[in-house]
Amino acid sequence: MSNTKAYDAQGKGRSTFTVHKERVFYDVMDLHRATLIQLVKVGTIDAEAGKKIANGLAQAIASYDDPTDPASLDYLMLEGKLLELVGPTASFLHTGRSRQDITSTLCQMEARHGARVSANAMLKVRESLLQVAEKHIMTVIPAYTHGVPAQPTTFAHYLLSFHDSMERHYHRMEEAYSRANQAALGSDVMCTSRFRHDRHLAAALLGFDGPVENSFDAVHGHAADVLCEVSQNMSLVSVLLSRYMMDMNVWQMTAHPWIYMSPSKLMSVSSSMPQKRNPRAMEWVRSMGAIVSGQSEMFLMAARNQPTGMSDIRDNMARIPDEIMVKMLDFVSDIVLSLAINVERAREETAKDYSTMIDVAESLYVKGKVPFRIGHHLASLMTDYGRENGLYPYQISYAEAQRMYKSISDGQELPISEAEYKETLDPVEYIKSRRGIGGPQEAEVKSMIAERKSRLATDQKKADSRNKHLTDAKARCHQEFEDLQK
């Protein structure tokens, strides 16, 4: 390939600002390569002039010692170098284009990059969630509403809810990628030009699916739209992650938690309290999510109340939060894989919290045709009685339940046996008794996991194809540029 320095997309050892500036530099230079290739192919620039410009451009690119220097991104600065190397012929490179369509195309490249790397990281989170869910299909845990115990569920059922939210966000990001993957290049300021351009070829050489058709929209509408869409999708993902991280954080706020992270780099210790094992990675995720949301909001603020043709939002292109987004998602994947569940402790917690009481009402209706509201009344009386007397649900005797039922049913007998009564108070039996689609019962959870693993494999295949398409387009662009130099 042509002179292109390798750079670490994860930014290891360097600031995200540096990594981003390098990526934009190489995108800009590929944009110039693609422009020249298609101008020569359509005959707007003759082959001899194209060769001179190609060799001059290659020398100019190689001359940049610091790709992060903002001056390297300004076309007029580049043209100054080319004029020194090639002479007036160099200015043909800018035939039929302007800094308007160049900047908009870079915004489109930036938006699709953010969507692509975010989507790739989201696939890893989905894989981690399904991997852990498969190990906990019948691990009973308490589920909460309004911050208090509500019903028993399973850890697999809970993780599948996390997965399904992430899957929706993934497809939203995938759709945003498709909309972002269209190019403005060749639209000039907004109304094209007298010169022949092959906008389809230019777009293909840069890995785009094609050009944004309307040249006015391409430069002054589409770029702003996709930057806002991708960044807002990132913000939505950060909201999702903060919710589930808070769940897992809160669950550990007891003397004997049933869930914790295995000792790892994701935890920290106190400088003064030797017993502390802090789930710091969960805090990092929430903190990074706040940054993602804040930076994403900037695009909306820059885009609002601006007349057509203003560059406010495009000037902010450099700050789309893709690097921190990927880091946040990678942390979540690692956190999920590090989770350790004390199965007996989780079941004990669930058995003590009165969350099976709704099954008392359901069983009375199913087995004795007792109207639900009467069964609900009995379950409520049992809850109050148990809590007032310091009892757990399974410590309330069948005889006591009989007494309470008679008090609200004109002396009728409780229409379920003692064995059936005890089953209604057992969280495992509660899970087994569920019948609805998508519930926590074993067969349903196994079916959901299998279906989601299949969908994940399909999505991963599409993502691999998308990544390969960009790699192949870059290789083609560089090869055809090298051919121009010969």
TrEMBL record:
UniProt protein name: Arginosuccinase
GO biological process: L-arginine biosynthetic process via ornithine
Native species: Scytalidium lignicola
Span list, region Disordered: 453-476
One function term, GO molecular function aspect: argininosuccinate lyase activity
An annotated GO cellular component: cytosol
A Pfam family per the record: Lyase_1
SUPFAM superfamilies: L-aspartase-like
Family matches, as InterPro entries: Argininosuccinate_lyase (IPR009049), Fumarase/histidase_N (IPR024083), Fumarate_lyase_fam (IPR000362), Fumarate_lyase_N (IPR022761), L-Aspartase-like (IPR008948)
Similarity comment: Belongs to the lyase 1 family. Argininosuccinate lyase subfamily.
Signal peptide span: none
Domain Fumarate lyase N-terminal: start-end pairs: 84-294
